[in-house]
Amino acid sequence: MAVNPNGSDEKKVRTAACCFMGLSHILFLKEYVKGILFTLIELLFIGCLPLVVKKLIDLVTLGSPQPNVAVKFRSNSVFMLIDGILILALIAFFIILYVISVRSANSAYKNYCRTGKFPTQKVSLGKIGSNAFPIAGLAPCVVMLIVFVVVPLIFSICVAFTNYSAPEHIPPKNTVDWVGFQNFKELMFGGTTWSKGFVRVAVWTLVWAVLSTFTCYFGGLLVAVELQESKIKFAGLFRFIFILPYAVPSVITMLVWKNLLNGTFGTVNRTLQALGLDGRIPWLGNPTLAQVMCIVINLWAGFGYFMMLSIGTMTAIPKDMYEAARIDGASSLQCLRHITMPLVLYQTMPLIIMSFTHNINNFGIIYFLTGGSPTVADSTITNAGGTDILVTWIYKLTITLQKYNYASVIAVLIFVVLAPFAIYQFRSTKAFKEGEV
Q1: 286: which DSSP letter?
Q2: Nearest 5°: phi and psi at 169?
């Protein structure tokens, strides 16, 4: 079938391409190999349609109770959810290929209108080969990204809208059902022990993240200024000593501090007793005191990083600026306030934001130091201790209580809070601003 090279048949070419993949390439554009490839893709998808429809139905229903069937032969709602998400990814991939086929037909027709002739089969095969090489190279990475990153992420989000929790809704013994925003309402606005526990843990998580970031940053900056301005002879040795807590794995240091601060046999209390002081201080047994100790020990472990960062930034500040300021009569404090601090803050502000987001999810410090303890009023039901932050609570909800729905709700809320910071951090990078991503 012929088409006019004046552009009048563009609508006909696009319509045929939209009706069936590769149809325009075969009927109008003489690109038979490309058209056959596109056609085979759609025929393969059509052949899989019964399976696709079944998996989509399973995704909507998540199975039905089967009390008369042995447990090991019952349908598993979780597997249905995962299979459904994979099928949705497959459908999205097919739609993308469909759009590519339509755009390819439009591009080929425009090229025919410009040149007045169709490409030979050899040229067409050459284009397919050159275009297929990068696609073939990236395909394994894309598939792995979808299977191991995108699908689990979407699965975690979907669980937040189900009743997947023990003991009533753990497959295959029982099915899982869609409940919409019920979990969000119960956890955030339910007025129950769960919602009170969530508010308590969320507030402490924000307090922890802010204070941990603030103390580590300004503690490191203060030490860096002292080492730079005081002209200590062995400044390098002090830098080495101060960076050690950050260099040693936090698992080791937190477990050591946990034993040192033990209220019964800890070295700190025993030392106080030996000095004739009160050696019964519940460092990690009182909720408020335990929270304070978490912040203090995090400061001890993390200030060295910001110290080295600040020293590196201060070293890059031109000495001429300080000399000019001193000639104008500025004191050391004024130089620190008007030269050092603004320049260091400007250079390190993205890292402060990164540190804040890291501390919100700082699982290791809390888990290995206190394990979330001590217990508080709602711990019996929620299993959230006085020092638990949201990420450690998620761990307990999944491992201990098997409240996967509530854990997913919390994970979604953390993502909603942290995503703007991550986007801001990405948009602030030089590569993004210059279009070199």
Answers
A1: S
A2: -125, 55
